[in-house]
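TICKET: design request
STATUS: open
ATTACHED STRUCTURE:
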């Protein structure tokens, strides 16, 4: 065990903070909560209160939400590549793919990133489904 490696919890917190900063800087919006959880070679991210004030205003004006969906899709496209970069920098692994989408009804945004391998951490056994760590049954 390398004591210089971060724990999985530290990586998850670092990711949450960097994603919060990304939203604040690029969208001038601060989501209420961001949760990141590693699952072996996958990373799940849930962003609560992700819709910007402009999106929320448009939802109240437009009945069918077509414009809001297009606007939200454009925002997600802009954020997705930056999100990939953040994940790769913090976890020090390559991101193979990201599924990234939002729901207008709940103001939640979710992402699932597939990593080329689990990140190196001091406590690999704490990552569910991690083949590198030994889990007790």
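STATUS: resolved
RESOLUTION: sequence designed for all positions
ATTACHED SEQUENCE:
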């Amino acid at each position: 065990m390398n004591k210089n490696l971060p724990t999985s919890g530290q990586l998850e917190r670092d990711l949450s903070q960097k994603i919060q900063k990304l939203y604040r800087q690029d969208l001038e919006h601060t989501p209420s909560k961001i949760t990141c959880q590693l699952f072996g070679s996958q990373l799940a991210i849930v962003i609560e209160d992700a819709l910007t004030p402009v999106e929320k205003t448009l939802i109240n004006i437009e009945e069918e939400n077509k414009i809001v969906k297009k606007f939200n899709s454009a925002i997600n496209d802009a954020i997705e590549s930056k999100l990939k970069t953040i994940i790769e920098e913090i976890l020090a692994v390559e991101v193979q793919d990201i599924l990234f989408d939002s729901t207008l009804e709940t103001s939640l945004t979710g992402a699932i990133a597939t990593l080329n391998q689990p990140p190196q951490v001091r406590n690999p056994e704490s990552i569910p489904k991690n083949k590198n760590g030994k889990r007790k049954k």
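CLOSING REMARK: The chain has one domain: 8-114. Residues 9 and 93 are 16 Å apart (CA to CA).
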